[in-house]
Structures are given as structure tokens and as C-alpha cells.
Amino acid sequence: MKRGFRLSLAAGVTAAVTLLTACGANDTPSGQGGTVKPGGNLVLLNDAPSITWDPAKSSNLVVTTLGLIHRRLTSWDVAPGKDTAIVPDLATDTGRPSDGGKTWTFTLKDGLKYADGTPIKAEDVKWGLERSFAPAFSGGLAYHKDLLSPGLAYKGPFEGKDLDTIQTPDAKTIVFHLARPYGDFNWVASTPAFSPVPKGKGAEANYGDHPVASGPYQLASYERGKSAKLTRNPNWNRDEDKTRLANPDTIEFELGQDTGVISKRLVDDTGKDRAAFGMSFASPAQLAQIQGNASAKARLVTSESGALAYLSLNTQRGNLKNPKVRQAFQYAVDKAAYQVASAGSAQLAGDVATTLITPGLQGREQYDLYPAPPSGDVAKAKQLLAEAGFPNGLDGLVLATHNERGFPEKAAAIQASLARANIKVTIKPLDEDTYTSEVDTKGLSDYDLTLTSWQPDIPSANANIQPLFQSTEIGNGGYNESRYSNPEVDKLIGEAQATVDPAEAGKKWAALDKKILADSPVVPLIYTRNSFLHGSQVGGVEIGRFPAYVDYRKFGIVQ
Asked: Could you read off the pLDDT of 340-351 as tens digits, one per residue?
């Protein structure tokens, strides 16, 4: 999924911050002499003004907020130091493929209930998925849509039409008949739209303000721009749900908070803020404050890796149509300068990237098609430009980027490094809505280069490769910002998706990684690291290999 400006630490931290520890680890209680036990009130501080509680509209990862209220057919087992594994959630297993991966069958566990005490049925999972096709409930992850309704002909259930590719022969069985074999469908079944919604409910646009809960918590109150409060779901069974510890009795969200205020509150660590967690990535201001505060430093948790930050080269525009010109960019970019612009140091910013598939995913192979020092190889870049017919370099290129969270500063680092190879670039910062409409929605983009980042939605290389490089993802809200179109790559993506055996699929995705990067539609920059700060009474703060987010299911208050 496009996480865009939300995925990188912002620029401007001094080099002194390199003393901070950067590792994904199981965070232990900070000097309180206690252990995490059920009970207490957890406070979550968020700079965003709202949270999407409607599963049809959500792109939330399994480990973050939506999973506190809504369960899905499958879930993830996430822990530091090991690969993320798929596990059952509402279902008894992780799905049973047949017909070469075109048909997938799931059986619900016994005794599942919503917060209101009514039973969770297979038809509710179907209804929830059908809602996601209705135009009024768009915006969520859509991996399932073309598989269940090719060409998206189905428009939702509110006009009385069923999606006949989903069958529910009884209250506990749900069968999916896909348009083509799809080996990752069990992972797709962990995305938000696979949360149950009681059949017939959820027609109102504001269903997300009062959703019917299937997870350990229910939404007791919600006020956009201000707050939300979760209380326990009395019908959730702790013994049956193996992925959610659900330690706090209540969870309070403070929304629309100024990042500077969040920084000060968490560093000061007083009163209720001792039981608080910062949902936003640690900012330069936070990191600078933490450097001189031993207590706060002990409460900073940083991921092993994260998103792929990358520079897209518009393969359908001007001189960038020439592969040799695009390859020159691989050597011209100073990735070390990008690290400094991102977080002040390589340690906190993340490792230099040379592949399209991010670390922690099955089948990933480490390679480097364009070997050069982290600062680049300017002579090699100029040589390739000369061979392509541009001995004096390139002029007049426009780089579009987000206007928030340090992206203008990071774009400036790219601009300066390209100038060394006589590639002259003008930066165009755009707000998020404009970026989406100008870069992702238009079929033909007016920009030569774009700078952004990408966090896969599921721990599969499929989610790295297909959204960014399949030709169907050009324009119309897709994320193929390089406008890369290669019929052979499209064919190989389909073959990899159809491979049910994960190990065999991993080999195919790794081969695609190399094949695509040989055409140089993007320059991989770094695998970003995400840092989070919390109060001294918050324990159980874990970040696994994937995703680079704290697992909200494991939080607790030190008693």
C-alpha cells in the first residue's frame, strides 16, 4: 500500500543522534520494576485527526488500530527476530486451496460472537466483502476485488445483488471462487475487508463511527479531531484468540495532536503520559530531545527495516524513455546523503537499498546490479549519459514529492547529488491530495521524477512488485509512478501470483525483482527505519521483521 509521506523519518536530525540504538526488539518495561499484566488504561497519541474504523474503507495493517476492534479470517504471528507467519484468526486454519489455487475454502471457529452477543456467521464475512465493492465504501485495500469480480463489475450489495463468486453453504463455511489462481489469497484474507459485518448492517456512510466489534475492544466513543475510546468487548474470548493479548482495560486515543507537543509529553514522561504511546514516527525534534535524556532513550524502539524509499523515473517521458539514461541515475544518486537528509545518520534512516523487495519477505535475494559506493559513482553516471547521447547531461527535469514530513529536504539531497552528474532538476512539493491526483490518478504524468516510499500491505514480495510495476497500476489511482509497462513482466507477475507454493513463488518474485531493476524504472534508495517513543509504564512494545510498526495487539501497562 502507498504509505507515502507517512513512512519515513523526517529530515534534520544532527549526526549526534547516531548514538541511539536502532534495532527492532522486544521492549521491556523501563525501570518500573513491574511486569505487564491485564488492566489499566493505555493512551495513544496521534497527530492524525481521524481514524478509519470501517473495515471496507481501511488500509490498516493487521498489527495496528483496526485489529483491536475487527478480526479477519487470517492473521499474522509477528515477533522480533523471526519472519512473520500467517495464522488463523476467525477461521480454523489459514485456508484450503483447491482447483490449482482458484478456489479457497475457510471454516469459522465455533462460538464466535460480536460485542452485542449475536453469532458471527460466514454470511457476515461475505457481506463485509460485498460492502467493499460499493462506491460509497471505497478507499480500502483492494487485493480481493479483481479476483472476485474481474473488471469490478460488481457494485455492492445495497441494490439487492449478491457476489456469486463467494458462497456460504452453511453458517461456518465460506468458499471463494477466484478469477485466476492466486497463491497469496490466504494473506489477502488478513486485510481489513475480510472483517465480518452483520448482514444487512453498514449501509449508512458513517458506519465507521459505530461499527459492530468482533475483536477484543468496541468503540465506546469517537469524535473526529479530538478523541476515541475503546472498551472491552464482553463476548471476546481470550483463550480462543491467539494473536491478541488485549491487556489494557481501556484504550484512549488523543487525535489531532501537535507533533511537538507529543514529543515533549513523552520525553517528560509525567502523569497519564507515563501510560502513553506515540503513534507517529519519532520526529527530528523528538530524536534531538532523546539524545540528552537517558530515560527517553531507553523508551525509543526502532525497527530493523521498513519501507522501500525510492526515486521513480517516468519511463514514458522525454529522455527517460532511454534505459541507458535511466541507468545513469542509479550511479548519480548519493544514497548516503539521502540517509542523512532522512534522519541524520544511516543507523536511524535505514540501510542503503539495492533491491525492490524489502527485507523480511520470503524469497528475497540480496543483489546489486549497479555496484557503487553509497555516495554514488558520478563518473559512471556521466559515462552512461554520454553513451546515450547526452554528454552535457540533462536539463529541465521536474521532481514531484510530498510537501510534508521532511520530503522537501530529502528531495533537495537528491537534487544536489544529480547536479554532480549534470542532471538539473526542479523540485515541486505537493500536498497529499494534489500528489495523488497529479501523480497517481493521471494516466500521463507531467513529472519526470517522483520521490516517495512503499510499505507492502502483506508480507509477500507480491505486495512489493505488483502494485508498483504492473502496467494495470498506471493512473486511475494506481501506484506505478514510473509508468513502467513491460508485457513480459506483466505475464511473469501473473505466473508468480498463481503459484501456490510459497517457496516456488518466492523464486519467481526474486527473478522479477532483478528483471525489472535491469530496466531501471526506479532507483532504490534506502530501506527506512521507523522509531516510536512511549511512556515508562507502557510495556510489551514489539516490532517484528515485518511490518515496521509496533504490534498494538501486545501493548500493556506495567502493573
From this structure: 888 777 777 889
